[in-house]
Sequence to fold (816 residues):
Amino acid sequence: MVAKPREQNLEFEAAERNLSPGMANQAWGLEDSATDFKETELTLGPPGESRDAGGKSGTKRGFCETLDLNLTGSNAKRNDPGAQSQQEACPTAKHPAAKAKLVGWPPVRALRKNAMRSDGCNYVKVAVDGAPYLRKVDLEMYSSYKHLSEALEDMFSCFTIRNYFNAGKLMDPVDGSEYVLAYEDRDGDWMMVGDIPWQIFARSCKRIRLMKSSETVDIEPITPPK
Amino acid sequence: MRDISAEVPGGGDYHPPCPDQVLENVLENVLQFLTSRRDRNAASLVCKSWYRAEALTRSELFIGNCYAVTARRVTERFCRVNSVVLKGRPRFADFSLMPPNWGAHFTPWLTAFGAAYHWLEKIYLKRMSITDDDLAQISLSFPSFKELTLVCCDGFGTSGLAILASKSRQLRVLDLIEDEVNDDDVDWISCFPENGTCLESLSFDCVEWPINFGALERLVARSPNLKKLRLNQFVTLGQLYQLIVRAPQLTHLGTGAFSPPEIWAQGSEEPDYEAAFSACRSLVCLSGFREVVPDYLPAIYPVCGKLISLNFSYANINAEELKSVICHCNKLQTLWVLDTVRDEGLEAVATTCKDLIELRVFPIDASEDSEGFVSEVGLTAIAEGCRKLQSILYFCQRMTNAAVVAMSKNCPDLVVFRLCIMGRHRPDYLTNEPMDEGFGAIVMNCAKLTRLAVSGLLTDKAFSYIGRYGKLVRTLSVAFAGDSDSALKYVLEGCSNLQKLEIRDSPFGDSALRDGLHHYYNMRFLWMSSCRVTLQGCREIAQTLPQMVVEVFTSESTSVKDEDEYVDTLYMYRSLERSRNDAPAYVRIL
Fold:
């Protein structure tokens, strides 16, 4: 998007204002919520410095404190009619490092936010051939195949994981039979775990099965249960 | 009043009532049937005798702001109350914008009610703080207490619930909705009367601690009138099964986790969940699904055809999984979902749910930079498919004016329109224009609109539309919007029915604040945080309008100082009283 000339002026104006001295004690810096230039401004402070609505008084939004530059610029007060009438936000200008945690935005209640985080919410069944129990595993908790393998090893601790990079072969130390990690995807096909990037796997996996490798000459699609 | 007994021939014991008294008796009998509080308020203004009669016959009390009036004034006017609705904190408190211990305590109200309303049966509190002692006191004070509903409340825990359960033996309704409940390690579920309960509704889905399941099972078994049961996420699918086979009469069910436990025995027969749901022939409302394993969703297919309300807002399901359920739900009127269902899921909703009245789409990742899985595509589909829509809450990262305009034209019955574009200041995705025209169309075309929440890149123009066309708007939420004071002025001057105005992070200052002086007393409250109002500006309002209580504070429990350039938070409300005496130290009441 090409910034219109007006917007460019605004950025400059705002940048000037932000750099002016004596703002350090202002309760509410020069943040201009409509223009939000604090997002684009270059500060010498660390990124992610508190910009939230509930900043501490005294140090509240004192970005200007961090700036050594002493460009006097317009030192415009906010109710300067000249400055105000020009205000339009520059929507695409977002400085990634300057994005700090906003309080209460988006407006979702804490209870709901926490529920989403804690549940992870990507549960799949894990079954092991011959084992008397099933487990439920939340794929959101893991970031890689290795991570998942380790977790499965913990859960079904009678197995040792060997060669998990190699299509996840597991060996049962008791009877020496090898197990293979397979999963059913959303199309109902059974595939070997490890063939595709983790993220894609996590999204498409419906359930996991540790199958005895003697039973898997090649993994064939199994009709999903009713 | 004339004493006419002396005029009756033969005098004696008969004293016929004088005409005024007859009128009052008649009035009382008639007014008993008046239930709407607005009608009652109007009736009470006719004349003194109507005021008295109305006060004698009002049995349901509604207090929208607990600080607008004192308990004493209320109990002096109304003497026969059996049901109370009391609301405390303003809505932005839900989003951590209000410091803790700000107020809204139930205790003083309870003390007054305990003395005045011995036959109180129902209490509904929203955003108030209620203690365990209060819960115990309720049981003590009100022998026929029947219904307690707590929404977004805090301050109490399982020990208070235990006392209420055991002592209020006529309890029919105990609904805990989105409360913060402390865990005192008390098994409150076991405390209900042993011989049987009157319970009709029990909701504890917000309780974040496991409950004694065996006790719950027995409770359900001895509660023959139970119609609504909302479980928390610690109840597994297998446990849910055991409950619903005992209570097939349920109409509203919160399904808990809807998931097997961490480990379960393989080979053992899994219960026939589908059969259990089939047996619930009256089920019309489903919620829960807190840890849903989508494999098990087919269990609810048998009830979908009758469902009026479905809350999937904690269910991480994709479009396919939603479709498999929604295709059966042709009577659905209320649907809450997560955006994980994507536009595709919403398209399926639009195809099947022709009677949809309320839709809420929540984000699975509530952050500014999240991916956002629904967009203008989903909104347009809903607009085209669900023509009867009255209420929508939609979280997204991408929107167009065209989609919002489409909704304004296709859904003329819209009463509530809340669109939250999570990234701040985002313009129309396709045209890069501000979202002014979209919201403008909503206020222009939706003649019944009473509640509006705006977002995205908005200039003063959007607010001029709102002021010009939003004549019925009562609640308006604004965040990160507008260019100048003019925006707020348009709203304050134009929206003659405005009751609740909540604004954050917008460039509105003292000049705009002054513009609302004519209207503030007609409002329940005004909230402005991180705007540009000064202490002086607030003081002026306080001095000009003595009937308004003007509170200023910061969101971090520190006082607003005289030398601060702007006030962090202004919360202002009308009141019949002087300022409250329970404000914490950091709140300055001007």
Observations:
- The radius of gyration of chain A is 28 Å.
- Chain A touches chain B through 55 residues (CB under 8 Å).
- DSSP finds five helices and seven strands in chain A.
- Helices of chain A lie at 5-19, 81-85, 110-119, 145-155, 198-204.
